[in-house]
Specification:
The structure is a single chain. The chain is globular. By secondary structure, it is mainly alpha-helical. The chain has 3 domains: about 5-130, Rossmann fold, CATH 3.40.50.620; about 190-285; about 290-510, DNA Cyclobutane Dipyrimidine Photolyase, subunit A, domain 3 (Orthogonal Bundle), CATH 1.10.579.10. A 5-stranded parallel sheet has the order 3-2-1-4-5, with helices on both faces. Helix content is about 50%, strand content about 5%. It binds flavin-adenine dinucleotide. Flavin-adenine dinucleotide binds near residues 231, 232, 376 and 384.
């Protein structure tokens, strides 16, 4: 029987793995991890991502070893590795999941496809998310297909006959991959076991407060599921997470524990976000150009490129002079994660207040996020920068957010030690202090832009373009290609195409 090479990419698990289960029925399985040094030199990659990925691989290797197999690790370019395998073991079948990655992985996959065709190798890819392959998508029935996919039975871990392995490389270190040093002060534990533990505590203990506490960085750390990196690297399957949440929702409605209505609301809110996960990745799958070009072409060139390098640096280091922005950024630098509201606020500040292009600010954030997921990331960066053409323009005030999400100011004091000595509400706006400022926080910078003035200029520029007839016509096209039809409001209007493409409101109504 032919060897079945299962190429693990961002699907680092044996459980609910469709490609693996199908491959195992056809012959001995050779599990393969490829470490591609060129990928790890891309500007959206970082050592913190590598460390998480590496941890998942080590655990996957242990799981395979416990079943009598051996995970083969190869370093190099994909086509060179396949060529070498082919010369050593002859023909094989190739399996993987359908990856919606960045432009580099897309081109790499095209090269692998051409190589496979040239060597008469069949490469079968299977879905792991509710994303439909290909450029042109029927968005009207997308949500239904997502539901069907998530409700399909889980694929049990198959009984696997492992192939005799060919020589394997050691997993390189971040240093060997020439990644810039990037040690997290508070890393999230990597691997499937840690992911499953988080899923359990979220659904049974931590998640009750999810809806209420997701927006403040003070409470979000424990109230949010924290599952994003496990989903991004496939240590958990989206379907197993969705089904576990649905099962918990049924249990709550059957047993009606204390606070059951709060619990139910939180679980509903959580499963809505699982849906958004795939909804956003679909946008990149259908239009890969959104990694570098706005959805609405009317905004091309609106923000100068390159943006002001001093602003980009100060923002990235948490030295803008806006305490809550700086605290959020420094928290992110130390954790590799921060909650949605803070990500949106950081992007809003970069693109409205500092007028930086989302492409540049987005790359900085991509490297900082351990859970970097290109489809979600680039869609969100554009949405927060107001360049999709279809979403409400939402500028976050760093001062209002500071008062709302950190009323005591303790989060700021913890993450911006230069302000530790500033008592009371002055910590939100230290520039309001006159002489005292020099005594209490001499090392903290003055804000280098005025929020009100800078954000007004930005909004004027965007609205100036947005009201042009050509922009309205273009927005209609963006809606038809990418707009969500799944929210309660858009369900009502989905039969009749909207004349005003204000259709992604459900995303904003989620109080993210
Ligand atoms: C500018 C910007 C960039 C972002 N980049 C990423 C990214 O690279 N990778 C990433 O996973 N998320 C990204 N997000 C979305 C969101 O902030 C994170 O998914 C979330 O904070 C992860 O924490 P959690 O797992 O505790 O989320 P929870 O709130 O517990 O949600 C559960 C899961 O739902 C999905 N999800 C949650 N919120 C969203 C959302 N708004 N859009 C799409 N999917 C969502 C994620 O897979 C998440 O793990 C970005 C948001 C913004 C504003």
């Amino acid at each position: 029987m032919k060897t079945q090479v299962v190429w693990f990419k961002r699907d680092l698990r044996l459980f609910d793995h469709t490609a693996l289960a199908e491959a195992a029925k056809l012959g001995p399985v050779l599990p393969l991890i490829m470490v591609e040094p060129e990928y790890w030199q891309l500007p959206d990659t970082s050592a913190r991502q590598w460390e998480f990925w590496r941890g998942c691989i080590v655990e996957l290797g242990r799981e395979i070893a416990a079943q009598g197999g051996r995970l083969m690790i190869r370093t190099g370019s994909a086509t060179d590795i396949f060529e070498d395998l082919h010369s050593r073991m002859g023909s094989f079948d190739l399996w993987s999941h359908e990856e919606t990655g960045n432009h580099w992985t897309y081109r790499r996959d095209l090269a692998v496809k051409a190589w496979a065709r040239g060597h008469d190798i069949s490469w079968r890819e299977r879905r792991q998310f509710g994303v439909t392959r290909g450029r042109t998508q029927d968005r009207d029935h997308w949500a239904k297909r997502w539901d069907q996919m998530m409700r399909q039975p889980i694929t049990a871990t198959p009984v696997i006959e492992w192939a005799k392995t060919v020589p394997s490389d050691a997993l390189p270190t971040a240093n060997e991959l020439s990644l810039a040093p990037d040690v997290l002060l508070h890393p999230q534990r990597s691997g499937r076991v840690a992911g499953l533990a988080l899923l359990k505590t979220f659904l049974h203990e931590r998640g009750m407060a999810y809806s209420r506490e997701m927006s403040s960085p003070v409470t979000a750390e424990s109230a949010c599921s924290r599952l994003s990196p496990y989903l991004a690297y496939g240590a958990l399957s989206m379907r197993e997470v969705y089904q576990a949440a649905e099962e918990r929702a049924s249990q709550i409605s059957r047993e009606r524990p204390a606070g059951h209505s709060v619990w139910s609301r939180s679980i509903r809110s959580f499963t809505a976000r699982l849906h958004w996960h795939c909804h956003f990745i679909q946008k990149l799958e259908s239009e890969p150009e959104i990694e570098w070009e706005p959805f609405a072409k009317i905004y091309i060139g609106m923000r100068p490129r390159p943006g002001n390098p001093a602003y980009l640096k100060a923002w990235s280091e948490g030295r803008t002079g806006y305490p809550f922005i700086d605290a959020a950024m420094r928290y992110l630098n130390a954790h590799g994660w921060i909650n949605f509201r803070m990500r949106a606020m950081l992007m809003s500040f970069a693109t409205y207040d500092l007028w930086l292009p989302w492409q540049e600010a987005g790359l900085v954030l991509a490297r900082k996020f351990v859970d970097f997921e290109p489809g979600i990331h680039w869609s969100q960066c554009q949405m927060q920068a107001g360049e999709t053409g279809i979403n409400t323009i939402r500028v976050y005030s760093p001062i209002k957010q500071s008062h709302d999400q950190d009323p005591s100011g303790d989060f700021i004091r913890a993450w911006v030690p230069e302000l530790a000595g500033v008592a009371g509400s002055m910590v939100h706006e230290p520039w309001q202090m006159q002489v005292l400022r020099l005594t209490l926080c001499p090392d903290y910078p003055q804000p280098f832009v005025d929020h009100k003035t800078a954000s007004k200029q930005a909004k004027d520029e965007i609205f100036g373009r947005r009201k042009l007839a050509v922009a309205r016509a273009e927005a209609q096209g963006v809606y038809l290609r990418h707009g969500s039809r799944s929210g309660p409001r858009s369900r009502k209007i989905s039969k009749k195409r909207p004349t005003h493409p204000k259709v992604e409101a459900p995303q904003l109504l989620l109080d993210l």
